[in-house]
Amino acid sequence: MSGQFYVPATGWLHALDMRVKLCMTLVVVVLCSVWGNWMFLAATLVIMHVMLLTGHVPARHVGRLWAVLAPLCAFVAVVMLLSMNDYGTGVLWRLGWWRVTSQTLMMCLVVVLRIADIVLALFLTLFTTSHADWVRGLTGLHLPLSAARRMARAVNVVPQWFAIYRERRLMRAVRGAGGGLAAFSDAWTVLRLRERRASVASLTRGAQMHTGSAKPTVMRPAHMRLMDWLVLGIVVLVAAGVATMVALGW
After folding, report:
1. Which residues, including other chains, have CB under 8 Å from residue 68's CB and lie 6 or more apart?
2. Engineered SS bond to 177: which of 118, 172, 187, 247, CB 3.0-4.6 Å?
3. Which of 7-16, 24-33, 58-67, 188-197 has the lowest mean pLDDT?
C-alpha cells in the first residue's frame, strides 16, 4: 500500500465536493441497512462499480478491494448456512442434521450484498478524496481546522500501518532479523511516532495560533459547484424514492 486509500485520477468523482461524496456514502449505508430488497442491493452494487469505472479509478484497485472483500463475504455466507439450518421450510438440500432452505439462501444473499454495498460505498469516497479534500470538506462542515486535520489523518491509519509494516519487515529481513511479530510491534511504534511528529510540526508552524478573534482557515475553502448541487439533488431524490418504497412495503 502507498500509505493512503486515495487513488490520484482526473475523473468526475475526484472533482466532486467531498461533502457530496460523504452524503452519498451515508445515504447508501443507511438505505442498504434499512431495506433488504435483493434487487435494490444488487442494482446499487452495479451502479457503484459503474461510478468507479467512469470516475477513472483503476480496475486494479477495485480488484484489490475485492480480493479482501470476497473472502469475507464467503466466510459470512458459510457461517450463516451452517448456523441457520433450522430457518425456513423450503428445503433445497439436506445432509444429516444440516439442511439448506430457499429462505436461508435468500438471507445469505441479502447479507452478502449489504456488506458489499456498504464497503463499496465507503471506498467510493476513500478512493477519490485526497488529504487536502478531506480537510477542506470537513472544515466546510464547520469542523475546527485542527480537528479536521486529525480526522483526515485518521482516515488513512490502516494503509499507513500496512505501508510501515511492509517497510519494517523488509528492513528486518535485510539485517537478517526475524520479521513477523517484531515488525508488527515496530509498525505501531513508528506510526505513533510519525503522528506525534506531525502534530509537533503543525504546532511549530502556528497551526493553533489565533490572531485576535481570527481563526486559522484553509487556503482554498470547499466550494459547491453546479455539478455538486446536481449530484446532491439526485442523491436526495433517490433517497426519497427508496424511503417511499420502504414505507409502502415494497
Report:
1. none
2. 172
3. 188-197
